[in-house]
């Protein structure tokens, strides 16, 4: 059996604000909003590929503990987006006040990457594939 990632799921203090951030900065499109788990909402978003982004509210009674967006932490460290022009994307995101976690770095294979902090302390990698 062949597997593929169905979705990436983020828990957010304010899922509507988080979804709006992805709409604004990454052209995401909200395709659904529903209660999946009791007393929570999940906003489903298309991100331009087959993998969906889900943003959900925090279940009642769950912890308020948060992780800091940083490289090399255990668990889900980050997710990434392909971009065509990394320099232009980083200039746009920096001008919008988004924190750069790792400046543009060229890999030995010629691709370029950078990391930014998204809402809810989510670490996001931007990758410009090698030409």
TrEMBL record:
<dbReference type="GO" id="GO:0046872">
    <property type="term" value="F:metal ion binding"/>
</dbReference>
<keyword id="KW-0479">Metal-binding</keyword>
<dbReference type="InterPro" id="IPR029068">
    <property type="entry name" value="Glyas_Bleomycin-R_OHBP_Dase"/>
</dbReference>
<dbReference type="InterPro" id="IPR004360">
    <property type="entry name" value="Glyas_Fos-R_dOase_dom"/>
</dbReference>
<dbReference type="GO" id="GO:0004493">
    <property type="term" value="F:methylmalonyl-CoA epimerase activity"/>
</dbReference>
<dbReference type="InterPro" id="IPR051785">
    <property type="entry name" value="MMCE/EMCE_epimerase"/>
</dbReference>
<dbReference type="GO" id="GO:0046491">
    <property type="term" value="P:L-methylmalonyl-CoA metabolic process"/>
</dbReference>
<feature type="domain" description="VOC">
    <location>
        <begin position="4"/>
        <end position="129"/>
    </location>
</feature>
<dbReference type="InterPro" id="IPR037523">
    <property type="entry name" value="VOC_core"/>
</dbReference>
<dbReference type="Pfam" id="PF00903">
    <property type="entry name" value="Glyoxalase"/>
</dbReference>
<protein>
    <recommendedName>
        <fullName>VOC domain-containing protein</fullName>
    </recommendedName>
</protein>
């Amino acid at each position: 059996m062949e597997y593929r990632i169905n979705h990436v799921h983020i828990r957010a203090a304010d899922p509507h604000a988080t979804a709006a951030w992805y709409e604004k900065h990454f052209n995401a499109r909200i395709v659904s909003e529903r209660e999946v788990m009791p007393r929570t909402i999940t906003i489903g978003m298309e991100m331009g590929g087959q993998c969906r982004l889900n943003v959900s509210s925090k279940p009642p009674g769950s912890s308020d503990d948060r992780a800091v967006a940083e490289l090399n932490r255990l668990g889900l460290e980050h997710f990434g987006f392909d971009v065509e022009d990394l320099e232009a994307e980083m200039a746009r995101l920096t001008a919008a006040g988004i924190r750069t976690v790792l400046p543009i770095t060229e890999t030995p294979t010629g691709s370029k990457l950078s990391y930014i902090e998204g809402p809810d302390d989510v670490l996001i990698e931007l990758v410009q594939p090698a030409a």
